[in-house]
Amino acid sequence: MGTVLIVEDDPVLRRGLEDNFRVKGYDTLTACDGNEGLANALKERPDLIILDIMLPGIDGYEVCSHIRAKNLDMPIIMLTARHEESDVVLGLNTGADDYVSKPFSIKELLARANAFMRRRGACEPLVYEFGGCRLDLRNGTLLRQGEDVALTPGELKMLHLFLKRPGCPLTREEIRAAVWGHARFVTVRDVDQTIARLQRKIEPDPSRPPYIRMMGNEDYQFEVPQAHGNRTDR
């Protein structure tokens, strides 16, 4: 379904939202104040944000404004206890896509979230090209220089993750969670080994990989050389 970031200072409501979104198949991230919410949004790039307006630290309006200033376009649904038209207009003008007034129906919120996710999914590229490689998500195939390259399910999900977030450092734990979820039997060593196998399949020179690079001691980052470019198709 995708990843939703829930920014809410009420611990009971935050936990309730987290549980309901997880039941519906979403991965969840949470934050209890505006500063933490903004940091998570900029670092994790979630697919959807549920954002309370009245937050400790910076409020939801400022969080939303900062996110849009970074040209991030994920849908943002604001939660508000305010019912004044001016407050709603302010939220929409700072970049929110929708708002829900407290108290609200969780079914209604989930329905709105699902609608945004369907539209967002419809806009996601189905084909990625980089260098001499072409990943087609419609049938889960990878071609390199026109030749079929067999990918395991884990390698396919990992390559898709990197292609969706080029230039973004990803920790081993972030990669593990995105590719395998919360499976306890998967370790950071498994992450390294899967990346090494993927490098052998896509890199022109795995000993000096231009695409999947180790950043420091913990992060991996996908980079597409300017000479090759990166094209996506519907």
Can you walk through the features of this model?
The chain has 234 residues and is of the alpha/beta class. The chain has 2 domains: 3-123, Response regulator (Rossmann fold, 3-Layer(aba) Sandwich); 127-233, Arc Repressor Mutant, subunit A, CATH 1.10.10. The chain has helices at residues 11-23, 34-44, 60-69, 85-93, 106-123, 153-164, 172-180, 188-202; strands at residues 3-7, 27-31, 48-52, 76-80, 98-101, 127-130, 133-136, 141-144, 147-149, 170-171, 212-215, 219-222, 230-233. Strands 2-1-3-4-5 form a 5-stranded parallel β-sheet, with helices on both faces. Strands 9-8-7-6-13 form a 5-stranded antiparallel β-sheet, with helices on one face. It has a 3-stranded antiparallel β-sheet with strand order 10-12-11. Strand 1 (3-7), helix 1 (11-23) and strand 2 (27-31) form a beta-alpha-beta unit. The longest helix has 18 residues, at 106-123. The chain is elongated, with a radius of gyration of 19 Å. The model is unreliable at 227-231 (pLDDT under 50).
